[in-house]
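We emphasize that the prediction below concerns an isolated chain of 454 residues; any contacts that depend on oligomerization or on bound cofactors are therefore not represented. The input was used exactly as deposited, without trimming of termini.
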Amino acid sequence: MTQRSVVSIIGVVALGACLALGPQAGLAAQPGSPATSGLTLAQALQEALTRNPQVTAAQQAVAAAQQGIVVAQAGFAPTVSADGTGTYGSATGGTFASGSSSAPGNLSGTGSVSLTANLPLYDGGRTRAAVETARAALSSAEAALRQTTQDTALSVATAFFSVLQAEQLTTVQEALLAQAQAQLALSQAQVRAGVAAQSDVIQVQAQVAQAQVNLLQARSQIATSKAGLQGAIGMDAATPVEVQPPPPPPLAVTVSADAVMTSAEANRPEVAKAQAAVASNQAALDLAHVSAGPQVDVGVGATYTPFSTSPVLNNSTSYGVTATVSLPLYDAGKGKAEIAGAEATLLSAQAQLTAARLSVRQDAYQSYLAAVQDSAAVTATQVARDAADEALRVAEGRYRTGVGTIVEVITARATAAQADVNAVTAQYTYQTALATLQHAVGMPIQGSTLGGSQ
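Result of the prediction step, given as a token string:
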């Protein structure tokens, strides 16, 4: 077993306790390893939905739209009101028969209290159009909330996997530094034994220095990735955050391209918003037709006056049907223009709906292809890593026996290091691709049957 293999195994055993990267040789968690404390992906998503101000704003927009329906439907409902009037004063008397002067009248009061109820029967369709507009506004707000929620979830998942990737790459760089330091000790020992040149030591020292730089950069990337996750969740940047990996995903995308595109067209909030815009513009066109024609209003009403200073009105009841008709004779073409404008706006909304459907299908198909490709990359990079490890083992063996050179070892180690980085990157790129695919089909990232995210 090579020195590099020994260090890799030690580092991987420690890493396996906190990161489940999926079916990778040498990177799986060991049985009985303790679980690491920190946010799971499900918890991070829940925190984001609770904290993120954009989600809160979208939720309040839905609440406002719901009240808009109540306001619009009030046009169909009866209304009841209580009214009271009263006066108190004097009236100036007429001229006396003697014609000498006018005398002030006596102080007196008049008043009445009444209850009035009205029920609209017909308003030409204005209330119906207002209700349809309000319903379309609610549908649009609900779709916007879904889109905000899904976009936020994707941002959190992407940032979450970036943190895990940065942590794993840091562990890889720590192992590479340890290996370079071990190689330096070996080269120094061989120089002392007279079986290697001093130039070997110098070359390995350069490799150690570069490994130290790479490790510093990797550790810095952890902090950067965590800041991105904090921002996506809506946490303060000063709040410490640790993460746990989700269960490893299967190395296969088990849905078909057609199923992905069909699901996207049915579930994506962008399509729902476009449909709501069509419904809203259809209601606007209906209202334009109503406004351009005769205005007819019919209603029934009743009034009860339980008290009045007038004997005629006191304890009286009146009721009846009221109808008004207004026929526009000339409006300088305003009505026709409003209808034409509403028709054009409706056609535009319908075209945008078609475009939205095409767009989400294309997005879903591209996300599907990316997930399939990234799934294959996981297996390919694992094979490449195993081959690079074996090549390094051979190079180290040749160097120990004096057959190989330090250049062969350094080259083989660089290839193996890049293979390790590629394997880690491929694993998390695949998990991010699965989350992106879930977003593309309009499904929640948490709990999706596509796998890879909880």
